[in-house]
Amino acid sequence: MARLGTARAYPSLKKIVLVVVVILLLILPLAVPSQYTIFVVTIGLVYATLAASWDFLSGYAGLLSFGHAGMFGMGAYGAIIATDRFGVPPALGLLCGAAGGAAIAVVMAILTLRLNGAYVALMTLAVAQITYIIILLGGDLTGGALGIVGYEGLLPGNSAIGYFYAALAMVVLAAVGLAILGRSSYGLTLKALRDDQVKAQTMGVNINRTKLSVFAISGAVAGLAGGFYAYLIGVLTVGVFDAVAFAGLVIGMAVMGGIGSIWGPAIFAVLYWYVASYLEDSLGPGYNALILGALIIATMVFLPKGIWNSLVIRRKAREAAPSGVDEVQEVRA
Amino acid sequence: MELVWNAIVTGAVNGLVYALLSLGLALIFGVVRVVNFAHADFLTLAAYVVIALTLLGVPLLIAMLAGAAVAFLLGFTFDRAVLRMIRAKAIGDLETRSLVATIGLSLLITNAIFVIYGPDVRRTTGFFRGSIEILGAVVSAQSIVAAGIAVIAAVTLIWLLQSTKFGMAVRAVRDDPEYVGSFGVNREMIYGFSFAIAAALAGLAGALIAPVQYVSPYFGTIFLLKAFVIVVMAGLGSMVGVVVASVTLGVLESLAITQFGGHAGDLVFFGVMCLTLLIRPNGLFGLKEKVA
Questions:
Q1: Which helix (H) or strand (E) holds A93?
Q2: How many Å lie between the alpha carbon of A102 and the closest alpha carbon of chain B?
Q3: Residue numbers in B near A125 (CB within 8 A)
Q4: Stretch 79-118 of chain B: residues touching chain A, C-beta under 8 Å
Q5: Closest chain A residue to the Cα of B221, Cα to Cα
Q6: Residue among A124, A104, A97 at smallest CA distance from A229
Q7: What's the pLDDT tens digit per position in A202-260?
Q8: Is B133 helix (H, G, I), strand (E, B) or coil?
Q9: Which of A196, A295, B224, B231 is in the most buried spot, having the most CB atoms within 10 Å?
Q10: Torsion, CA A306, CA A309, CA A314, CA A319, rounded to 10
């Protein structure tokens, strides 16, 4: 689509927002001395990575996943089992985590090849729950219900600031990588798959191979986030398979942020997590989720395309909306 | 053998309670076309209403009806106030947006309960006492009452959908929401009442569970997952199928637990779900073209 009028000489609002957010995050440890705040934002960055990976699979490719807690959990267990049981150095352990996440995601992909819509979501959820039970019954290898403690950390000395910058690097690399993939011809293939599977197949898209690969990529990024989370927390239990915290909440973050944009879910996840933690600390447990529940409903009612697509991108929202193409907005632009 | 027989009876009673929850989920899924993530939280909500009212000395049966009524009102309000507004803006993926809104509702219900009652488990003091022996299996009076209420509610729902004018309108909206408007059916009201009836059924399930199980704010999750499995196994479009699937899974779960321990019950559920989706994605009783 050719852009009408002259090319803009100034950067888009999206780029400005991205640069400002990254700079703010870079200087955060200098501006905020509180170790606790830095720790909270670091977890927010893990959520951001997970939200970006969910968005790639469910926003770009339209394969609705409720199973990201399974990929996240397998990543965590993959990384820590490699480090603690087989002596793999933590940096390589992260790769094992990514492999673990990708492996379970490929299982989900194979089982959902013939399904679509809500049925993909339910199958991924079932696989994640079965994985959770298997890990729980895994005996000495997984530590069962007690989990694994006392494993080596990712960074020597386990400094909060070190983890913070590592997490920032992880989310920026993951989001840039996914965004570049999303703009490539592969990304177009995913959108074609999302918008009309039959038409895409007619145009020569190998549906099965595309589904397998997009699940694997999303699972690898989710697994990476899971592995990082396990090193950060220092105690690994089956809590990493929590379907509410690591699938339901992430879907909420991503859709509020604006699906199909990678950056919207990632940035919004950090913001959401920080605000949620702040509310929990100041109001007590329960109140934060109460307010966020209301916020989620309000976003779905009043900003149907999500905060990022509605407020930051605006004109390009038609790309982000999963199916409805908004012709009117394009003409106006 | 007696152990097995006991397990089958317990499983069948549990299955009937699952059926109430799953009938509601299937109704919302089929008619309103929303994967309702807050469904089991209506169950939790009603269970807490029962607990609160029985503490005040209200008779159990009335407290149970009140629990279902509260769920009905909240369900109706949510559909009218939120889902209707989402349906009105046909931008993007309607189903995903509605789904996420129900995640928001789930957070609202569970955390409102959490803020008021705290994280501790609770149980009502009132329940029906006594037990009887049926063919060698000892069944508590509470279970008999629960099974009886569940059967009555399920039969009423099926009658309502199959034999009344309202039911005909609901099925028409399910089958062709665009077309049905031209026959003078108020589609939005059908959506609202379907959601409300479904919520009330979940509430009734919660009211039946409250006397026999310890309840905590977040305990709905596992029931939600089980209801998903049942609806997938049954397939869309057959309410009788939902009841059959519920009782079957309830019995299988109960047998697995007595033979192999607690987690085996969950494995049965999710294993059945995987198998159904792989072999018969439309479900055992589903309509042919509904799924893929």
A1: helix A90-112
A2: 19
A3: 225, 228
A4: 82, 85-86, 89-93, 95-101, 103-108, 110-112, 114-115
A5: A244
A6: A97
A7: 988 899 999 999 999 999 999 999 999 999 998 998 888 887 777 778 888 888 888 88
A8: strand
A9: B231
A10: -120
